[in-house]
Amino acid sequence: MAKTRVHDLAKEYGMSSKEMLGHLREMKIPAKSASSTLEDAYVSIVRKKLKPILEARAQEIEAQKRAEEEAKAKEEAEAKAKAEAERLEAEKRREAERAEEERKRAAAEAARKKAEEERAAEEKRAAEEAERNRVRDNAPKSVPSFTSLLEQIAQQDKIMKERAEEEKRAKERAKEEAREARSGDRRSRSQRGEGEGDDSRHGRRGGADRSGARGAAEAPSERDAAGRGHGHGHKGSRRSGEGEDRYSRMAREAEEYNRERVLADAREAVKEATEESAGRRRKRKERRKKQQAEAAQEARIEKAIANDQDLSQLDTIKVPQGSTVAELADLLKVPANDIIKRLFLLGTPLTMTQSMSDDLIELVADDLHRDVKIMTKEEENSFSFYDDPKDLKPRPPVVTVMGHVDHGKTSLLDAIRHTGVAEGEAGGITQAIGASQVKINGRVITFIDTPGHETFTAMRARGAKVTDIVILIVAADDGVMPQTIESINHAKAANVPIIVAVNKIDKPGADPTRVRQELTEYGIIPEEWGGENIFCDISAKKHLGIDNLLESVLLEADVLELKANPDTFASGFVLEAKLDRGRGSVATVLVNRGTLHVGDAVVAGTSYGHVRAMLNPKGQNVKEARPSDPVEILGLASVPMAGDEFRVFTDDRDARELAESRALKARIEEQNKVKHVTLENLFATMEDQEVKELNLIIKADVQGSIEALVDSLNKMDQSEVRINVIHSAVGAITETDVILADASNAIIIGFGVRPEAKARAAAERDGVEIRTYSVIYKAIEDIDAARIGMLKPTEQEVQTATIEVRNTFKVPKVGMAAGCMVQEGEVSRDDLCRLVRDGIVVYEGKIASLRRYKDDVKSVKAGFECGIGLENFQDIHIGDVIESYKIEQVARTE
Ligand SMILES: Nc1nc2c(ncn2[C@@H]2O[C@H](COP(=O)(O)OP(=O)(O)OP(=O)(O)O)[C@@H](O)[C@H]2O)c(=O)[nH]1
């Protein structure tokens, strides 16, 4: 039976290992440390002795929990009340502010009206004043209003009338005088001489008089002219007076007209300013916003051009998969309520913090007329570049070999690596890095050396599109097998053309035509049969048809017109990465754009560094790598993951910032994941008590081992024990791993790696188990064993003794006791029992006391007499049979 460790027992009792060790010392049970194992017998002693402690602690915990709950409820109620009060207060404040604003607005309006009235009154007053002045001076420069004009005309009229009146009187006086003159001759002659002189004077005057008379006859028009002529008519001659009137009238009219127009314009402007100032402010704001957006867009375009990004995607908003309502609102720059409303209308009401499905994100964005692209985690970390078509140059094709197990993938890659290599050299060829290159007819082909659709699909799932052409290898003696079909599906899903290599044609049972026939069922039809797929018959073992296959690859590549821009900074994908004891982080990368140089600042996933050295597939040091070249790079500070995209940065700071922000994001996600798993566990445990969890942390030397292990784990039966890989990474086991394991009750599996000294100490301290392996199957075997060990044990009743009741007697303080004979087996004081009377069970429970004579004993064997008392049961009869038994837990083997 499995031994129990001190820390497990401590954990079971909710105490620290130290505390448990203290109890063990008290009980004189030998145990040195938290990881010491205890015999079952000791464990049962501990359980017995600690029972009251445990019960007390349980009560304590219960009480504490209750108190905490009460406190929490109280706190919540208080917080609620406080929030409500604050809300009311805020409401009140807002109300008061609104009222104050309203009051201010009304006051401002009143003030404005008053000012306007005052201004109007002032204007009126000023006009009247001006009019009065003009009338007083009788030489006004302008006539401000029609009323004053009428008044003026009336006044002029009056003046003219008075003047006409006076002239009339003067004429009559003159006539009188003439009459008087005609009456005396002498006086009349002498008076004529004077009269002539006078006449010459009067002649002018007479002229004036005549015109004055005519003026009187033409009074209305002259009056009019005089009136409008600002009363200048009385000065100088009548003609010049008339001229002055017309010009001044014209000037006045022009002045008046201009004044009116200026006033009207001003009034219009004031009106517009008061009525539409808000609108204009809005317009101005909008204009400013538009300008800002344009400037931002320009900056983005400039940055995109500097980084060779694809400009066509600039307007698309990138939304991480699983974004919450609040996050989406933030990205789309709309109020979250807008989204919540739309979701409600779509019949899927969500809260701010709930995450949205891809469909929902797209629906909502569409509704808001926004263009979004949902980014998977991998895509988020990827870059999109733009290349001018004129910069593109042909590049070698990148090929992956796929096929069913044992159909010859490895043999084919081997055969290909030996192509074009001189006989003597052949044996010396080693696979230096995770990819190889061959030259045929002066052209290069790149092969990815980790064959199989698993790698292909894993890379593709991470967004790494590295393969241009797939070679599907099918053994001619075996035909289409399950993994052949899987490979076809994966290649088709990735939209990569397939060339079929029919292998093992050297074998006697080989039937290449049958392979062609079978493949037609899956849409793979030979060119010679009118289809699109090239078929090549080969023997990987005998190196037959390999050149032809490679030439076909080049032919297919020509059709694909594979091109890339080599004259820019490099980017591509990580094919494989590992931690090398001597060289540190080593990553095999495939350049798919630009040229990678030694010394370049590179970011790959969350790793960052300068390329210290580069090795080509032959293991030679190189200074640069061009599109479709695979190289091993040294110099990254940490180990990236297979499938990570890498790129070179011209600015070192940019590179470091990106790597750091990605690492931070990854750490946050990791933490959330752990929390998530724990919550899920809790939920699952609550919902279904049958489910148990086995949490694992996997650390390995290469990513491939992690994937293989996880793959095998996924294939295990997890219906009763769920296996959670809560964290996996390439690298040594660190203290952080131990802390994580402790927090999540996990076991650490190291594959090809060892724990650091600090990690070992932490594991010892916290009782975390670290298991290290060098072969995968051993790790899988152990995990499987742990899984079975964790299965809920089956309970089994094991009968310990059959006892006959021969007598009954009363014992003080105990009650009714039975004088018995043990007939079979051995009864223990701890056993459970049932009392059987005439074949019927009348009692089932515990033994309360077991005695021989007057002594309490632990057990009594068959053939001996004993006294037995039953817990809470007195009705014992002579002839009853007591069956004692134990419940044993039996570990399942499956
Ligand atoms: N006769 C003959 N045998 C071959 C040929 N190609 C491969 N084999 C043999 O087939 C077996 C499997 O070949 P591998 O190259 O290991 O096949 P694989 O597809 O890589 O196998 P896995 O890595 O297990 O998926 C080996 O024993 C090879 O020697 C061939 O052209 N002719």
Helix and strand composition category = alpha+beta
Please state the CA-atom Rg, rounded to the nearest Å. 54 Å
Uncertain runs: 139-144, 185-243, 422-430, 673-691
* Cα separation of the termini: 16 Å
Mean pLDDT: 78
Ligands (ions, cofactors included): guanosine-5'-triphosphate
Work out the helix count: 22
The neighbouring-strand order within the major sheet is: 7-8-6-9-10-11
Q: What composes the largest sheet?
A: 6 strands, mixed
Number of strands: 33
Tell me briefly what this model is.
The protein has 894 residues and is of the alpha+beta class. It is found in: Cytoplasm.
Describe this structure in words.
With 894 residues, the chain is an alpha+beta fold. It has 22 helices and 33 strands. Strands 7-8-6-9-10-11 form a six-stranded mixed sheet, with helices on both faces. A six-stranded antiparallel β-barrel has the order 13-14-20-17-16-21. Helix 6 (219-228) crosses helix 7 (238-306). The longest helix is centred in the first third of the chain and has 98 residues, at 40-137. The protein is flat. The structure holds guanosine-5'-triphosphate (GTP). Guanosine-5'-triphosphate (GTP) binds next to helix 12. Guanosine-5'-triphosphate binds at residues 403, 405-411, 503-504, 506-507, 539-541.
Architecture blueprint of SSEs:
Elements: E1 4-5, H1 6-12, H2 17-26, E2 37-38, H3 40-137, H4 146-182, H5 185-217, H6 219-228, H7 238-306, E3 317-320, H8 325-332, H9 336-345, H10 358-367, E4 372-375, H11 377-380, E5 393-394, E6 398-403, H12 409-417, H13 423-426, E7 435-440, E8 443-448, H14 453-461, E9 469-475, H15 482-493, E10 498-503, H16 512-520, E11 534-537, H17 546-560, E12 563-564, E13 571-580, E14 584-593, E15 596-597, E16 601-604, E17 607-615, E18 621-622, E19 624-625, E20 630-636, E21 645-649, H18 652-687, E22 692-700, H19 703-715, E23 721-730, H20 735-743, E24 746-751, H21 757-766, E25 770-773, H22 776-790, E26 794-811, E27 815-828, E28 832-837, E29 840-852, E30 855-856, E31 859-861, E32 865-870, E33 881-890
Parallel strand pairs: 3-4, 6-8, 6-9, 9-10, 10-11, 22-23, 22-24, 24-25
Antiparallel strand pairs: 1-2, 5-12, 7-8, 13-14, 13-21, 14-20, 15-19, 16-17, 16-21, 17-18, 17-20, 26-27, 26-33, 27-31, 27-32, 28-29, 28-33, 29-30, 29-32
Helix pairs in contact: 1-2, 4-5, 4-6, 6-7, 8-9, 19-22, 20-21
This protein binds guanosine-5'-triphosphate (GTP).
InterPro entries: EF-G-like_DII, IF2_II, IF2_N, P-loop_NTPase, Small_GTP-bd, T_Tr_GTP-bd_dom, TF_IF2_bacterial-like, TIF_IF2
Keywords: Cytoplasm, GTP-binding, Initiation factor, Nucleotide-binding, Protein biosynthesis
Pfam family, one: EF-G_D2
